[in-house]
C-alpha cells in the first residue's frame, strides 16, 4: 500500500507556486488553474519514477480526483 | 596531447521580439502569466524573414571579433552547429569563412545537432586541439527554428527563439579560461520522430502540401513544420539525464559534491526543474537563464554560460557541468574546470 500522505505531497509538488497546498485525496486535480498538459506529463513521469508504473494520458483523462489516480496506481501494481 | 580551454563566449539575438503579450494576442486562451509561470520564458526573438542562421552566425562572430579577444587571422578552425543551414550545400561554415574574411588556411564545417549541439561542439573542438590539428577553434551555434514553427502552434511558439552564439576554444589558457575535461554522450534514434520537421529533407522532399492536424481545438501537427511530442521529450529528459550526469561525473573522477554549478540545456523551466530534482542537484547549484531568450536550441548553454561568467557566478577553481539533451534524440555532458 502506497503511503497516501507521501503520495499526496508528491502530487501537490506538480503544481506551480504552491497552488495546491490545500489539496486532499478528494480534490479534483484538473480544476486547478495551473493544471495543463505539461503538469499531466510531469505527473505521469513522477509516477513512473516513483512507482515504476506506466499510466497513459487517456487513463489519466478518466480520473477526476487525486484518489482516482492513487487507486489506478495501486491496481496496476497489484496486476504487475 | 594539448589541453583545450574555453576562452570566451558571446551571443546575438535577432531583432523581432516575440513576448508573452504578443503570443497572448494571437492565442487569447493562452494567458501571459500562465506561459511565464510554466516555461520561465517572457521573451524570445525571431530572425527576419530574409535572415538566415548564416546571417545570425555572421553578426554574432563580427561582434565577437570586435571585442578584441582574438584576431581573425589566428582562428584556424570554424565549426558551425545548425539544423537550419543556409543551403543543403555548400556548407554554411565555408560561406562564413569568406564573409568573415578568415584565413583560407582555416578548416570549416557544419554539423547538424540541436539541443545537445554545444556540448558536442566542445567535444569536436577539444579533439581538434588535443590532436594538434588546430590551436584556435571558433565554435558557432546558430538556429532559426522560428522558420519551422506553424503559425497556429502556440506550444512551440511559446518555447523556441532564434539566436547565435560564438565560443573561442584555444590550446592557450588565460585568466578566466575553463579547461574542457571529459565527456559523456548518448543517442536514442528510436525517438527521432518525437522532435522533427518531417518534410523538406531528402526523405520527404515535397513540401507545401502538409495537412493541419488538430486535437480538439488545439493545433497538433503539420508535416511541413516542427513537431514536438512534449511527453516523449519530457520523459527522455527526466529519465536519461540523471544517468548521463552521473556518468560524466565518474568519467571525470570526481563526486557530485565537487561540481559547483550545473548548466543544462535551457529547454523550459518546468521541465528543467523536474530534471534537476531527478538528478538530485541542489537548487543553488543549478543555473537558469531562459527568461529573456527562450529555448534557443544549441545556443542555450553558451548563452547561460556567458551570463554565469558575467555575473561572477563562476569563479576560478569552480567545476561546471554542462549538459545538453533533445532532438535526435541526442545528449551530451562535459565538465569544465575554471
What does it look like?
The complex is a heterodimer of chains A (about 80) and B (about 350). Chain A is mainly alpha-helical and about 80 residues long. Chain A has four helices and no strands. Helix content of chain A is about 55%, strand content about 0%. Chain A starts with a helix and ends with a helix. Chain B has about 350 residues and is of the alpha/beta class. In chain B, a hairpin with a 2-residue loop joins strand 10 and strand 11. In chain B, helix 7 (about 230-250) packs across helix 8. Chain B is globular, with a radius of gyration of 19 Å. The chains are: A mainly alpha (about 80), B alpha/beta (about 350). The interface of A and B includes residues 36 and 49 of A.
Quick rundown:
The complex is a heterodimer of chains A (80) and B (338). By secondary structure, chain A is mostly helical. Chain A has 4 helices and no strands.
Amino acid at each position: 500500500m502506497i503511503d497516501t500522505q507521501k503520495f499526496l505531497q508528491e502530487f501537490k509538488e506538480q503544481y506551480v507556486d504552491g497552488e495546491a497546498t490545500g489539496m486532499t485525496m478528494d480534490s479534483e486535480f484538473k480544476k486547478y488553474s495551473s493544471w495543463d498538459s505539461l503538469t499531466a506529463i510531469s505527473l505521469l513521469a513522477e509516477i513512473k519514477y516513483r512507482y515504476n508504473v506506466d499510466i497513459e494520458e487517456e487513463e489519466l483523462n478518466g480520473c477526476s480526483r487525486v484518489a482516482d489516480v492513487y487507486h489506478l496506481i495501486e491496481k496496476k501494481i497489484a496486476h504487475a | 596531447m594539448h589541453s583545450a580551454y574555453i576562452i570566451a563566449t558571446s551571443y546575438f539575438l535577432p531583432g523581432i521580439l516575440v513576448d508573452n503579450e504578443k503570443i497572448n494576442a494571437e492565442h487569447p486562451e493562452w494567458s501571459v502569466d500562465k506561459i511565464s509561470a510554466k516555461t520561465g520564458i517572457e521573451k524570445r526573438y525571431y530572425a527576419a524573414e530574409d535572415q538566415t542562421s548564416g546571417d545570425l552566425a555572421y553578426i554574432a562572430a563580427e561582434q565577437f571579433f570586435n571585442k578584441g579577444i582574438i584576431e581573425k587571422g589566428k582562428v584556424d578552425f570554424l565549426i558551425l552547429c545548425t539544423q537550419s543551414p543556409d543551403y543543403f550545400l555548400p556548407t554554411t561554415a565555408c560561406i562564413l569563412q569568406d564573409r568573415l574574411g578568415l584565413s583560407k588556411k582555416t578548416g570549416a564545417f557544419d554539423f547538424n545537432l540541436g539541443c545537445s549541439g554545444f556540448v558536442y561542439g566542445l567535444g569536436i573542438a577539444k579533439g581538434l586541439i588535443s590532436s594538434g590539428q588546430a590551436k584556435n577553434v571558433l565554435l558557432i551555434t546558430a538556429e532559426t527554428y522560428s522558420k519551422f514553427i506553424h503559425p497556429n502552434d502556440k506550444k512551440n511558439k511559446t518555447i523556441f527563439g532564434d539566436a547565435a552564439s560564438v565560443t573561442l576554444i584555444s590550446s592557450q589558457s588565460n585568466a578566466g579560461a575553463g579547461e574542457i575535461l571529459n565527456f559523456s554522450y548518448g543517442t536514442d534514434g528510436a525517438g527521432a520522430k518525437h522532435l522533427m520537421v518531417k518534410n523538406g529533407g531528402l526523405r520527404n522532399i515535397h513540401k507545401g502540401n502538409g495537412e493541419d492536424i488538430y486535437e480538439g481545438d488545439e493545433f497538433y501537427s503539420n508535416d511541413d513544420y516542427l513537431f514536438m511530442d512534449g511527453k516523449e521529450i519530457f520523459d527522455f529528459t527526466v529519465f536519461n539525464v540523471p544517468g548521463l550526469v552521473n556518468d560524466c561525473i565518474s568519467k571525470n573522477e570526481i563526486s557530485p559534491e565537487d561540481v559547483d554549478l550545473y548548466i543544462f540545456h535551457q529547454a523550459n523551466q518546468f521541465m528543467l526543474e523536474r530534471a534537476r530534482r531527478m538528478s538530485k542537484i541542489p537548487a543553488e547549484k543549478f543555473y537558469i537563464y531562459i527568461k529573456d531568450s527562450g529555448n534557443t536550441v544549441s545556443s542555450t548553454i553558451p548563452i547561460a554560460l556567458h551570463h554565469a561568467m558575467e555575473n561572477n557566478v563562476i569563479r576560478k577553481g569552480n567545476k561546471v557541468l554542462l549538459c545538453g539533451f533533445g532532438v535526435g534524440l541526442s545528449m551530451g555532458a562535459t565538465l569544465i574546470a575554471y
